[in-house]
Each structure stands twice: as structure tokens, then as C-alpha cells.
Amino acid sequence: MECCSFSTTTPLISPPSSTPALHISQFPISTPKLYSKTKTEKRKKLKKNYSDDEDEEEEEEGAEAEEGVIPEIVTNRMISRMGFSVGIPLMIGLLFFPFFYYLKVGLKIDVPTWVPFIVSFFFFGSALLGVSYGIVSSSWDPLREGSFLGWTEAQNNWPVFWQSLWGRSGKK
Questions:
Q1: Cβ-contact 19, 9 below 8 angstroms
Q2: Does this model's pTM top 0.85?
Q3: Largest CB tally within 10 Å, which of 73, 93, 101, 149?
Q4: First vs last Cα of the chain: how many Å apart?
Q5: What is the pLDDT of residue 160?
Q6: pLDDT for residue 34
């Protein structure tokens, strides 16, 4: 029977790269550069690489792509509202399982099987609806915070939300 033997070799040396590498262990860890190019610098670089006709087309496409981007502050509002509108019903729905178990085993109350199903269906369904309400109830204007419950924002944003789901946009 043969045994595997390992020969000792020198550690691999990584090739030089444009990003600095930290050598804490035998494997180099590259660190990202901490600066980013601005949009104007990126456009200048594109202009150098392409002809004038292609530049005009790319600027139009870039402007159209920037219109569909949701600002980060609006995204953070949506996520925080979704956390509450999903998290609260979900936690209540999950807490009903030990409650029904305690009723059945601890207190010896005969709870029909369909009652936990209906209760969990209601709370998990409301958590699912909470995803949509969290998106729609937040203010889509980056400069305006919106109300606490977001009811006025929801009334304004529901038609836009449904149009986006049906594939119709406001542009013609």
C-alpha cells in the first residue's frame, strides 16, 4: 500500500498588480482602491474611445438609464417601511404557533386544526402584502420624508405601482 507524500515547496509568489496587496499570510489579499471616477470622467473616457455618432447615442442611453434609478435615500425608506410592515405580522404569525401548542398541550384545550392554519394564513398573507405596502407607502421624492403611516403616499403611488406591474409606463 502506497502512502501519499507531500514535498515542501516554496510559497507561490503573486504577480505584481495595480492594486496594493497585504501579505498577512502566504496568500495575498488585495485591497480595493478607495476612489471612484465621477460621471464626467467616465464620459470623457468614453468619448476618447468612440466616435462622435456613437457618443450621442450613448449619452441618450445613459440619460434614459439614469431616469430609472431609484435614489439611495428612497430605497432606504422603502426597506425600513418593509421591515415594519412585513416584520410585525410575520412575528405575530410565528408567535401563534407556540401559543396554540401551549393551549393544546399545556392547558389541554382542544383547538381545531383549522384554527392555527387560518391564523397563520392571515398573518403570513398580511406580511406578504406588507412588502407591497412598504414600497408604496414610502415617499418616492428624495427631498420629502412623508408621513408616519404613509397613507397619503400610498394613495399617490398605488396607480404608478399598478401601471408598472401591467407594463404600461407614463411615457408614450
A1: no
A2: no
A3: 93
A4: 78
A5: 86
A6: 46
Which amino acid, one-letter code, is at 54?
E
Beta bridge partners of 21: 30
Question: Cβ distance 77 to 143 under 8 Å?
Answer: no
The residues of the chain scoring below 70 in pLDDT are: 1-67, 168-172
pLDDT of 104-124, one tens digit each? 999 999 999 999 999 999 999
Inter-residue contact 135 to 129 (CB < 8 Å): no
Select from 3, 1, 25 the least CA-distant residue to 12.
25
Please, which residues have CB within 8 angstroms of residue 161's CB and are 6 or more apart in sequence?
132, 135, 136
Domain boundaries, the chain: 74-162
Helix axes 151-166, 114-136, angle to 10 degrees: 90
Q: Which of 159, 157, 138 is nearest to 147 (CA)?
A: 138
